[in-house]
Amino acid sequence: MLDDIELWTRDFYKPPVYWLNGLAGTGKSTIAQTIAERKFADGMLGASFFCSRDFEDRRDLRFIFPTIAAQLARKYTEFRLILIPLVRSDPEIVRESLHGQMDKLIVQPLVKSAISTVIVIDALDECKDDEPASAILSVLGQFVSQIPKVKFFVTGRPELHIREGFRIPLLAKATDVFVLHEVKPSQVQSDIRLFYKHNCSGIKSRRRISDDWPTEEQLNLLCERTAGLFVYAMATVRFIDRKNKDPEEQLERLMQSQESGLEGRTKLRANTTLDSLYMSILYEAFGDDDPEDDAKVRSVLGAVVLAANPLSPSAIATLLGFSARGVFPLLSSVHSLLLLTEDINQPVRPFHKSFPDFIVNSARCTNPRFCVSPPDQHMELLVGCLELMNRQLKRNMCDLPDGVINAEVKDLEQRTEQHVDKALQYACRSWHKHLNPTTSTQKLEITPILHRFLEEKFLFWLEVLSILGATREAVDALETIEQWTDVSRTLDLVRDYFRFVLAFFDVISTSAPHIYISALPLSPPMSIARELYKRYACPSARVVRGLPTSWDPVLATFYHEDLEGAVAWSPCSRFVAVSRLATIEILDAKTLERLNTIESYRGLQHTQLSFSPDGHTLTKFDGFELTRWDLQTGSPVGTVSLAQGLEVAFSTSFLFTYSTDGKMLAITNTASHEPGLIATYDLLSGARTSSYRAPQGRIISPLWTYGECLRFVTVTPGFFTIWEAAFTSVHTPAMIECFHTPDEAANMECGKTLFLPALSQLAFTIQATIFVWDARSSRFSLKYEAISTSHPTEFYGMSFSTDGRFFSYGAGGGEIHVWKRTSGRYFLHQRLALPRTVQPLLSPNGESNIAPGCPTIHLWHTRDQILPTPGAPVRGSGDDLILEFSPNQILAAATRFKGNTVTVVDLQSGDLRLTIDTGMRVRCLRVAGSTIAVGGEGRIVTWNLPADNSVDARASVDDSAHTTTLRGLDQGDEASISPDLSRLATMEFTGLSGRVLIHNVSTGSRLTGTTISQRPSRVALDEHEVWCIYAGNSGWGWKILEDSETGDIRLESLGTTECPHRVLLYQSLCGYKVTQDGWVLSPIQKRLLWLPHHWRTDDRFRVWSGRFFGIVHRGLPDVVILEFFE
């Protein structure tokens, strides 16, 4: 066989792929290792990847192609010269789909370099793969024809997804297959006999044993007991050739032990041969009963077989409290069952996965001396991990420089190895994986140790996870604890920590030092994490005002400037798909962390996304065609043109659904001039299979699948009707049920109507009222009239959870309402708001809600009630904020645009000095010395600020120092008061043309003005110039000139140019900068602070004044003011 494979590697007329197919223990990996060694020796081996379920990085499909590319780059200079520019131009390539990885990392460099090489992939079945057909093989089939000079040698068990992968037509014709377990038994026995003779010959020559060893009788008995399993033969040879043991005596012991009663005691209907061998080896290694030694044996072997990732002997000793000198000899005594090196710091793992299956199964490992109890062993590992972390974790474990991000530390790997040994790394990453297997009776012992860890070491643990690139483990660990414990004190900690991790997930993942510089100081004062760890905070900025007292309802935010806005939940509610201009991002539904990037195309404005029922494919629909991708590989799997007959162009009113098996799709356009047309398509062929019209009325959302059939709802005056049709049928749909609608539904719009099949609930809106009608009981389960004084109320994006527990929609002013169903009625459960009006979308399981917008997507849970105190500002409600700092940076004044209340804050203490009820809708304000001026509704009103340091004083119009009436201030969109409070600039627009006017604040008279032809974003006035500011830094300026004799004012144009920094409030005159990814940089480019996503905004909503920084977008209930220390 080896010779045949050798010939295949050199014959380019033979297929480029070779699949060595075999059952467990038939020698696949041994052959793969031999082929890799031979090809390495003759210079043809380009790369190899030996999959293993024992190692996280070797069971993850996403590591295969990057690893192969790295090895090819090291081997071939020409490949490396092509690969490096590709990676530099797209550093995020490793996050791309498998299809994108193979194309960019492997295929393109191989095609351009024309390299001839061999690539070995062993044990592909040991990688985690949820696809019906192997994801790696699916991608390989698409590209293998482009690289004919490359040979792929693949081994794997004949698992269903592996078999289906090799049956893919493109790959099937490019593959040679050899099935090891179908080789004639006589040939297998001959090979095993040859294997024994070859290895015994080597032992004889090395150990100086007589030529007649082993005897023919011994050899025959060995071959008979091996039963065709190479794993048995290899374990036997390893046992015989044990270091410091006589091979002849080892073989004789094996013969005698299996002839004694041992075999009978271990014999089962399956695995008989291996069980007998394993028991013999254990007895030979550990001899007579010794309760103390037996407990140690179980602990050490249990750590080998149950560790989440393989541990070294030294790490096992550290975690279990043994000496490394004692653990290594114990493992050496059963070295024939393990992969063990002489280096005690290298991982040890089972030689074959049949051994872990044996030793944890009391029906197979029948001697309790050796049988490992999983709950007991998991508890021992868990306690060992927690106690190790409690002993060793401390702040700044790796001695990182202040304020750096992890990627900037060039020797981070060396620092980690020096300060965080392998045992502690394992403990930090894997302790929680041992929690669930423990029993309820073990909780009493575990809980105090766990609680101490959470109270004393939590942030230090996050720091290590950040350095290891494993912050996601923190989310999993906290969720595991929440499900495991019922201790309220621990639950309170865990839930607060969960909010902390999600709120600062990005910065924790990016920079370990900024856990203490950014995350901890910006946590709410009521946070348990902040209170417990406040002594470790080392902020570079002080929050003067605007820090929320409790956690924000939004758990996670995804930010990107080129979002298209289309989102979709996966059926399992674990993933979210987000459409960008040229890609689709697959996000983790807990953290909104990017998991995968699929190369797409730039769609139209109204793109729609949808997952298939099994969650394996994703569909993008742009109004003309429907494109599908395999989610695991990222490969396109088909395109269906839907343009004919559906009047699709630029419509936002398409409904579509899949058949149960995901092979058919039904679609309708509810905005068509010919309503009620439904078309069905075969997604494999792209052909339309049927089209028909609804018998009556207009179709409303949704279409859904019922068994093998399609169902939909139509509305007519006074009724709505449920219909059913087959996906492939051209017959008239059959009526299933007809319901009366209430009188209020007479004027409902079909485009703002939603039906919930599970509970027969009909949701619809009429003007500012939203209704949910329970068709079964013929009564309203919700009737809500929205009243908004600041925004006209509309409803956007109604959605139900699948079971109807929750109902959600977006309303005016960025508000979102979530209603919870109790006793047949919906009650308001959550009310929050975001910077922009959005269409929320409930997850199928109802546990989460997502609000897509550009440039941000927000995620929060529906579990907790979120209802603001009556009269309290809702996050995001209202208009944008206005903030002005006094020139001496002692005070700041803030209000909402068109609001009527102004607050004055002491910047040193953060105290609220004065609250002014202005009696007007404010458009502008200015603080100068001890005076504040406010403009709006045709007036400029000034107040004298209190001379003392009074706190929370009140003032009204009656307390004002001076009031001036100004014509035009009530008309302009923007206004600006000069720093000396002497002049006011306003804008007036009629259609496309407008004017900038300058007024005298004292008299109210108009001093001068000029025309403008383009509406700016705002107007800025100082003592000598007035500027209309447009996008970016550009603007049109005028110099203010005063006649010395007459006092007349005129404007001299400065033209269109870059605005001076003094009028660009969002630019710091001291040199501070805010980067696109939310970092505030000092004048020397040091990272001072990471801004949370809800504090990020466009330039026009930032205000700088010296070291003070203000944020004023409408997504905040109050202005945010920060003071930087550097």
UniProtKB/TrEMBL annotation:
Record Pfam families: NPHP3_N
Keywords on record: Repeat
Protein name: NACHT domain-containing protein
Residue ranges annotated for the NACHT domain, each copy included: 16-158
The UniProt record lists the keyword Repeat: yes
Superkingdom: Eukaryota
InterPro entries: NACHT_NTPase, NPHP3-like_N, P-loop_NTPase, Quino_amine_DH_bsu, Quinoprotein_ADH-like_sf, WD40/YVTN_repeat-like_dom_sf
